[in-house]
Amino acid sequence: MNEVAYDVTGQIDQLWIYPIKSCAGIAVKQARLLRHGLQWDRHWMVVDADGEFLTQRNHPRMALIRPEITDQHLVLHAPGQDSMEIPLLAQGEPCRARVWDDTVQAWDLGEWAQHAGQWLSQVLGTNCRLVRFDPAQDRQASERWVKAGEAPVHFADGYPLLLLSQAAVDELNQRLARAGEAAVDARRFRPNIVISGIEAHDEDRVEELALLDQPGLSLRPCKPCTRCPIPDIDPDTAIPGVSIGNQIRGYRQDSRVDGAITFGMNAVVQGLPWEQDSATMLTLGQSLGGQLRFE
Q: Pick from 283, 160, 265, 272: which is nearest to 218 by CA?
């Protein structure tokens, strides 16, 4: 049997899940991979009274809300607040929630809804509540970019996964250092998977990244991730800045998205069984390989 010769090979260096959209992430050593992304990623969302989603763009203090996943609970932490536990599968009456152009059915968390809403409203200083994605809903990534097959997604902006090379962050830090600015880490870009061992932004240039220990399973980068002010919000203090945006604006204008600033690649999962109880796991150190896309 002939071995595939890959143009690039690397390893999974970091794995992140973001249980509540736009709140702090959780670094994990392994994560269950499903067709809609990593288990529990963007499974909950903070919304206003009209069901419209809240993000750090307008509420930077969301960066200070630290979710924790235990065997049975979603636990919320924030500075100056007592922690709050919500059962992972809590659901109440169906409600409508809007994320960008998509309005979907969600769960209002039943008897825990009022307490969660009060807790979040106190942290953020605005009236809001927490909803949970209803897995029975069929929210799909953009056909324009996915093209072949279906790509279900929960409350993520639009795609199951976000990939980023560690070398891209290292290159940015070199530019920041030359400008007299402090270094940053990958958290600023909220990736699910940080890849080491590949060149800066190789994630832009590969057709797909095969999981070398799981034949037939791969991650396919499909759309450059356009960037808003969120990378300039310090994840430890929630204080906004401008240095990151100023730097990447100078070298990351992307013709694929009409000159918008991009950093990292949205990706879909290929080769995963339809069954929702798939036991496929991603782990730190797992090897990936891909062919470069020549255009």
A: 272
What is the distance in angstroms between the CA of the first residue and the CA of the last residue of the chain?
A: 30
Tens-digit pLDDT profile for residues 181-190: 999 999 999 9
Q: In which residue are the tokens 């809590």 written?
A: 90
The span from the CA of 21 to the CA of 155, in Å, is 7
Q: Average pLDDT in the 4-24 region?
A: 96
pTM: 0.95
CA distance linking residue 61 with residue 59, whole number of Å: 6
Neighbours of 109 (CB within 10 A): 24
- Say if CB 265 and CB 226 are below 8 A apart: no
Taking a C-beta distance cutoff of 8 angstroms, is the pair 47, 294 a contact?
no
Beta strands in the chain, from DSSP E residues, in sequence order: 8-17, 26-28, 30-34, 37-38, 44-47, 66-69, 73-77, 84-87, 94-99, 102-107, 129-133, 161-165, 193-196, 209-211, 218-226, 253-254, 260-270, 281-283, 287-290
